[in-house]
Design goal:
With about 350 residues, the protein is an alpha/beta fold. The protein has two domains: about 5-185 and about 345-360, Glycogen Phosphorylase B (Rossmann fold); about 195-335, Rossmann fold. The protein contains 15 helices and 16 strands. The strands form three sheets. A seven-stranded parallel sheet has the order 3-2-1-6-7-8-9, sandwiched between helices. A seven-stranded mixed sheet has the order 12-13-11-10-14-15-16. Strand 12 and strand 13 form a beta hairpin. Helix 1 (about 15-30) packs across helix 15. The two termini are about 15 Å apart.
């Protein structure tokens, strides 16, 4: 019998969607009859690799998250303004979504990390499950100096998140809590061998390759000429072009390319870019070194950086050095680190097993 799961996914970048996709993939490995109903603004193509034919897409503003000017700069006042329109949740909106979830026959509602979903599950009288390594009430605390008005939403959101029937946390944890399950980093699994990815990209097995990524967020890569001058290396930059382009030793890819992002990471010798949850988890799976760029006010960034320093290999890159391109001088050191075998299993599998068991109770 088909099991139906509603999934409310934050559209803040692609990180929450990547974690959700990893969990969906693991659930389908355990039960191929599961049907997902996705409520999000993340484009449907993002999920097609992981749940092709097993999901229906419902375009929904499920979460405000954090408004960003670009990958490294947040707009806290605009975030507060949009939250003022989003919270408290409209009773009409909650009831409408709850009726849709019930009509679809969903037996559980999972949130990563959209608080709206928890309220909808309560109205639909089905169990809710929260998956997180942080919640928005904690993130917003880091921006109170820029937008004190965020304070009026923190208590509300904390209360909503606390109302979830089940709670899974995934390492690296920002605020460890007494939850139902804590799992290792949750990552989408590699699909295609590194040698095949390199062959398609025209890269030899001996080539030194760095993947440069800002996590699916907009970015103006002004240092391309510096990359092209570093002819000892090859660079892959997803999200840097509308279609695949090759500029000497630099390969520019669109966000929506034929390449599965974890495969690109696994085929590279190092990754350089913004530190984020899904990127960290996929770098952890691949075992390559991480040249990571943090953000001053986004509190998760320091937690992820500490995890890299303790459990992975990598180098911190100052945002100014990244923007200007001088980080290229650190490539020899970054590439000197050997590939590291991760010591923990993929947290997606344990999360999926817990979810299926919870659905049968």
């Amino acid at each position: 019998m088909t099991k139906r799961i509603a999934y409310f996914i934050s559209p803040h970048g692609f990180g929450h969607a990547a974690r959700a996709a990893a969990v969906m993939e693991a659930l389908l490995a355990l039960n191929s009859d599961i049907q997902f109903e996705l409520f999000t603004l993340v484009p449907p193509w993002f999920f097609e690799h992981s749940a092709a034919g097993h999901f229906h897409y419902h375009q929904t503003m499920s979460d405000i998250g954090l408004v960003q000017q670009n990958a490294l700069t947040e707009d806290a006042p605009e975030t507060a303004r949009r939250l003022d329109e989003f919270l408290p949740f409209s009773g009409e909106k909650i009831n409408s979504l709850a009726e849709e979830v019930k009509r679809l026959g969903c037996q559980m509602l999972i949130c990563d990390i959209s608080p709206l979903g928890i309220a909808v599950a309560q109205a639909a009288d089905i169990p809710s499950l929260l998956i997180e390594n942080f919640t928005w009430d904690w993130i917003y605390q880091g921006y109170l100096s820029q937008a004190p008005e965020l304070g009026r939403h923190i208590a509300t959101l904390k209360e909503v998140f606390a109302a979830a029937d089940y709670h899974i946390q995934s390492d690296p944890l920002c605020v460890p809590a007494d939850v139902d399950l804590t799992v290792p980093p949750v990552s989408r699994k590699v699909r295609t061998p590194a040698a095949e990815i390199r062959r398609v990209l025209g890269l030899s097995a001996e080539a030194k390759v760095a993947l440069v990524t800002m996590g699916g967020m907009s970015w103006d890569y002004t240092f391309l000429k510096r990359l092209q001058a570093a002819t000892a290396y090859h660079f892959i930059i997803p999200g840097a072009a509308k279609q695949t382009e090759r500029q000497g030793n630099v390969i520019l890819l669109p966000n929506h390319s034929t390449f599965f992002h974890p495969d690109l990471i696994n085929a590279s010798d190092a990754l350089v870019g913004k530190v984020g949850y899904s990127t960290l988890a996929e770098v952890y799976q691949a075992g390559i070194p991480y040249g990571y760029v943090t953000r001053r006010y986004f509190q998760e960034a320091s937690i992820l950086a500490d995890y890299i320093d303790a459990d992975m290999t990598g180098l911190p890159i100052d945002p100014a050095r990244f923007i200007g391109g001088s980080w290229i001088d650190s490539l020899p050191e970054l590439l000197s680190f050997p590939r590291r075998r991760n010591r923990l299993p993929n947290g997606a599998d344990a999360a999926a097993a817990f979810i299926l068991e919870a659905m049968t109770n």
